[in-house]
Amino acid sequence: MRSPLRRTAALLFAATALAGSTAPASPVAAAPAAAPTAAPAAARTPARAGARHAECRTRVHGSHATAHCFNGNATTDHVQLHVECVRWWDPDMDTARAAVGPAGHVSLTQRCWLGIRHAWVTHRA
User: Fold this and answer.
1) Any idea what DSSP says for residue 97?
2) Which conformational region is residue 109 in: left (phi greater than 0), alpha (psi within -120 to 50 degrees), or beta?
3) pTM of the model
């Protein structure tokens, strides 16, 4: 049985050979779909670089939700935690919008009375 690495290499080689028959082969054309995130900062377009948001990790524990957001970008991002409660009579809750400056960190918390169905974070520039 072939190893996954050898199988992937064989598939990439075959794809490069097929692409080479219609157009000249280039390292950019053979790159996987995740390559744009690995591109150097100079290669990114200004519109795409300005559209980046803070990275947020949301954790739900029982009836409490916490979001930890870190902004690794050069622009300020405004984040807001939204919580959808399990019970129909328990109102859904939103936190106030918090500004996260460049290289800044913020923690947002919110709760429901009996349980949380879903928690998410929205961003605004």
Assistant:
1) P
2) beta
3) 0.58
